[in-house]
Amino acid sequence: MEFIKADNVRFAYEPAEGELPREVLHGVSLEIKKGEFVALLGHNGCGKSTMAKLFNGMLLPTEGKVTVDGMDTADEETIYEVRRRVGLVQQNPDNQLVASIVEEDVAFGPENLGIEPKEIRRRVDEALKAVDMYEYRENAPYKLSGGQKQRVAIAGIIAMEPDCIVLDEPTAMLDPRGRDEVMETIHKLNREKGITIILITHYMDEAVQAGRVIVMDEGNILTQGTPREVFSQVELLKQHHLDVPQATELAYRLRSYGCGIPDGILNEEECVGALFALIGKE
Amino acid sequence: MAAVLETQDLTYVYSPGSPFARTAVDHVNIAIEEGEFVGVIGHTGSGKSTLIQQLNGLLRPTSGKILLHGKDIWAEPKKIRAVRFQVGMVFQYPEYQLFEETVLKDIAFGPKNKGLSDEEAMEKAKEAAEFTGLKPSLWEKSPFELSGGEKRRVAIAGVIAMDPDVLVLDEPAAGLDPKGRDVLLAQIGSYHQHRKNTVLLVSHSMEDIARTADRVLVMNQGKAAMFDTTPNVFARSAELETMGLRVPQVTAIMTRLQAMGCPVPSGVLTLEQAIKELLPLVRKKEADENAQ
């Protein structure tokens, strides 16, 4: 069953004075199923961040329609329900934290929903535990590392009990350990709570962990499928200046030299296995 | 070769003498050679930002010294401003620091401050704009009309235009897409080759460091944990992992193959190197099998 549906969506930002409107999405149709983990890829300016903001009604399509669980995001009656169901996490954790204590920050969302204090307490504790930040509940956000801040931002969304979280390059500003923490957290939320995840990223090693990859280019969908289906199209991705994981590219380039290495290698593990089978020991 | 920049027991303590005292940089001794390209890695809080902010006198060390061309930069505190022209610093997300009416004026701000005439400053600005790949059609535009990647280049050009002996870049490619990142790194590389000056690149991307740096400084818990050639540093993947760091995927693949007994070297940093090592092995195996 589809949870989010974009039907022939076009979008143009309000033009500056004296300029023509520039369309950034040219009729995109896609469906996201409940419980899916989808990675959205593409270079800067391809329209993927615009897409993210359309998913929860922060932006409305110029033409076409976006629905969340059947609710049209353009319908003012249901917009708050849409935003509660689809939470958005952005790139810079420092722009998303509002309170001076971690748990107060997480409580900000449910407080705004008018939920009673006891229930807020329960949700805040549960959300902080879900992202492994419960011990830090009384800390000041500014003292946390980037990965920890980003997990607090995610907890703030979880406390609203959403069905879906859209993350717009959540790891772009983090070090390798921070990236691992955030990726582990969102995989856990997807696996254990069944929350639908839409992850916008530049990192191919993050995209290969998704159930489905959608590649956008110039305001259209370029290709989509399982990571293996998408990343075996090395030629197409390169043409559009997108990276593939180093493991995939190494295998691909060796194949192009005529080496008998299988197609669609995604990670270190598979690459090491295939190469060892090929060359063996000394 | 002479060291352009050297630290001697460099130590920086935040809030010294208070219960919140925290040593961010702890007795660091490094010498950076003239013309080197040095990569700086370390997880958040490892002390790398505190270290680089001392290199141009933005922070004054708690103890220890920084020598620029052999001279203590704090010997005459009144002259610290001159050091900031010699060690140019590009901060993270520098595009937020743009403020002038036009791209060229923004780039010329640094050289003008350095004391150059308007004309000389404009010459420097044009040169720097070309170095960073900003087309002349953009030069008279407002910096705020440009794309994110272009703004970043304007900010970097503003530092390059001051002709620093040492250029320090803190995460210059953060937030750019793969294409934007490749272009920017290539430009920094060609600037380095052309000017033959010293570059320090701070990055979380091990792939970027592997591609560009001659030597790598690894910061961990305020100390210089490693400072060695790039292949030597990335050959120590297990140690790096305990510091919250990683090696590039291709390096990890080659290291694992070596551990499994394949005759491949360690410290392979790029895809090109890996292919060069692997192809002959595959060919040899094929020949052996055909011979049987």
Q: Please estimate the helix content of chain B.
A: 40-55%
Give the domain tally of chain A. Answer: 1
Structural domains of chain B: how many: 3
- Output the CATH class name of chain A: Alpha Beta
The mean pLDDT of chain B is: 91
The secondary-structure class of chain A comes to alpha/beta
CATH fold-level name of chain A? Rossmann fold
Instruction: Give me the count of strands of chain B.
Output: 11
Taking the alpha carbons of the first and last residues of chain A, their distance comes to: 53 Å
Order of helices and strands of chain B: EEEEHEEHEHHHEHEHEEHHHH
Task: Assign an overall shape of chain B.
Answer: globular
Biggest sheet layout of chain A = 6 strands, mixed
Number of strands of chain A: 10
Description:
- Chain A has about 280 residues and is of the alpha/beta class.
- Chain A has one domain: Rossmann fold, CATH 3.40.50.300.
- Helix content of chain A is about 40%, strand content about 20%.
- Chain A is built from 11 helices and 10 strands.
- Chain A has helices spanning about 50-55, 80-85, 100-110, 115-130, 145-160, 175-190, 205, 225-230, 235-240, 245-255, 270-280; strands spanning about 1-15, 20-35, 35-40, 65-70, 70, 85-90, 165-170, 195-200, 210-215, 220-225.
- In chain A, the strands form 2 sheets. Chain A has a 6-stranded mixed β-sheet, sandwiched between helices.
- In chain A, a hairpin with an 8-residue loop joins strand 1 (about 1-15) and strand 2.
- In chain A, helix 4 crosses helix 5 (about 145-160) and helix 5 runs parallel beside helix 6.
- The longest helix of chain A has 17 residues, at about 175-190.
- In chain A, about 45% of the residues are buried.
- Chain B is of the alpha/beta class.
- Chain B folds into 3 domains: about 1-95 and about 165-175 and about 195-230, P-loop containing nucleotide triphosphate hydrolases (Rossmann fold, 3-Layer(aba) Sandwich), CATH 3.40.50.300; about 100-165, no CATH class; about 250-290, no CATH class.
- Chain B has a 6-stranded mixed β-sheet with strand order 7-8-9-4-10-11, with helices on both faces. In chain B, strands 1, 2, 3, 5 and 6 form a 5-stranded antiparallel β-sheet that branches.
- In chain B, helix 6 (about 180-195) links the parallel strand 8 and strand 9.
- In chain B, helix 3 (about 105-115) packs across helix 4 (about 120-130), helix 3 (about 105-115) packs parallel to helix 5 and helix 4 packs across helix 5 (about 150-160).
- Chain B starts with a strand and ends with a helix.
- The mean pLDDT of chain B is about 90.
